[in-house]
């Protein structure tokens, strides 16, 4: 995991990303699949427009909000050990 700030996905841009553009191509991806592009404020509109024209853009959210959604709600749930069969299963 890198400590570097995420950067904009626009070609040649090295600015810090502030938005996540979640998208999918229905010809290639299942409906629930989300690919992401990151955008700085300067390129947000351009990248959103590009995806929107093609019908690919599903969501445009703040990077902090997207990151918060990706974290497990219950951190202990991610570490749970598989349980053996119960007494009823034996």
What is the percent of helical residues? Answer: 25-40%
Number of alpha- plus pi-helical segments: 3
Provide the β-strand percentage band: 15-25%
Strand adjacency order, main sheet = 2-1-3
Number of domains: 1
Largest sheet: 3 strands, antiparallel
Descriptive keywords:
90 residues, alpha+beta, 3 helices, 18% strand, globular, disordered C terminus
How would you characterize the overall build of this protein?
Helix content is 28%, strand content 18%. The chain is of the alpha+beta class and 90 residues long. It has one domain. The C terminus is likely disordered. The protein has a three-stranded antiparallel β-sheet. The protein is globular and about 35 Å long. It has three helices and three strands. It starts with 18 loop residues before the first strand and ends in a 12-residue tail after the last helix.
Give a topology summary.
Blueprint: E1 19-23, E2 35-39, H1 41-53, E3 57-62, H2 63-70, H3 75-78
Antiparallel strand pairs: 1-2, 1-3
Outline of the structure:
This protein is α+β, with helices and mostly antiparallel strands. Helix content is about 30%, strand content about 20%.
